[in-house]
């Protein structure tokens, strides 16, 4: 069985060749225009960066190396006794563009479990945080501190060839992904279950199996399966989203993966991005408290209008790129439909009913370019049903997941020798001079 590193070693030369050819033959080929609206509108729509593992189509949604979510659900290995995609098989696909065998997936699970323990000083650091510090702040700080052990940074200081960067990058990325569950679970325990012992990592379990166990939900098979799916699906969403782009930008300075990903986590912590799943739950619960759970479409409609007229966004709806219902939302809904306990859950039923009404209300409201749900419309509510009720923690789970894609690209950026990012900015006066 070929290891992950050996597999990457085989794939990299052809990608390097592809980039060389693009540079040599098409460096001056025009593939889009930049309009003033792009410059003042958050660069929306500008094709401006390379991102290998996934591409987002506005209507179809995400494809990972060409595979849609249903494709991945068909071909990617699951955990023994499970049905859902796991983090390891998704990571392998993202990194190599290949579907791993069962044996390769298990080998990667084992490697991650073996590397999963936190250094003692990071445990101490995290334990010293006040429980009132937002869990995302704790996660970002913990990840940054892990850079103490960065192999890339140490090798760079000693002096290595550019062609070797990616191997150290890969080692750091695997170490970081391996350590995220212990770090994230420790934060959960400290904040919400102080004084309870954190179980040791089980070398025979997959990454998310261990994560759920360390959180204290190991005996809930359905929650474990849900988290496997959730973490695989949130793994990558091309490069332009705020967290992925942040990690790409910081990494382009040759910062190590720990610093790059910690920066990404602080972008993920914003309410318009990763914090939306906590916001959705807060909003759905407020709706439930005000109008009850056995409600009519008309009542939901009124509640939606109240939110909009109050100048707030409807959390879980809209997207910077997508123009249809998010296939990740659909996949999570299908998970709900396949589990009777979720079908009976009042909060899940309310999410579903909201979905039946919200797109029309948002269309009538007429502002958002995408009146359909994104993945966050449902993701947190399922966690809530299964008893993981501390919604300030939800973005941390997203943060464990997004490492798969963001760190994959760091490896590719170094393998392809991509340069430091440096787009051009303009003042309004300078822009007006260009227009004249
Ligand atoms: N409810 C009400 N208004 C909305 C809206 C929503 N769900 N989504 C967009 N709009 C408004 C938006 O505020 C903007 O208004 P102004 O012109 O007054 O500023 C207008 O519609 C045009 O926005 P857009 O071009 O359709 O969206 P953007 O690309 O600017 O923003 C989102 C995209 C996701 C930030 C935005 O749709 C939003 O705020 N959604 C609610 C929060 C959310 O669910 N975020 C999670 C996104 C998720 F995919 C993730 O990152 N995890």
Automatic annotation (TrEMBL):
InterPro entries reported in the protein's UniProt record? Citrate_synth-like_lrg_a-sub (IPR016142), Citrate_synth-like_sm_a-sub (IPR016143), Citrate_synthase (IPR002020), Citrate_synthase_AS (IPR019810), Citrate_synthase_euk (IPR010109), Citrate_synthase_sf (IPR036969)
Single Gene Ontology MF annotation: acyltransferase activity, acyl groups converted into alkyl on transfer
Keyword list, A-Z: Mitochondrion, Transferase, Transit peptide
Q: Where in the cell is it found?
A: Mitochondrion
Question: What does the entry list under GO cellular component?
Answer: mitochondrial matrix
Q: Does the keyword Transferase apply?
A: yes
An example GO biological process term is:
citrate metabolic process
Q: Which family does it belong to?
A: Belongs to the citrate synthase family.
NCBIfam families to which the protein is assigned, alphabetical? cit_synth_euk, PRK09569.1
Name of the protein described by the UniProt record: Citrate synthase
What species was this sequence derived from? Mycena venus
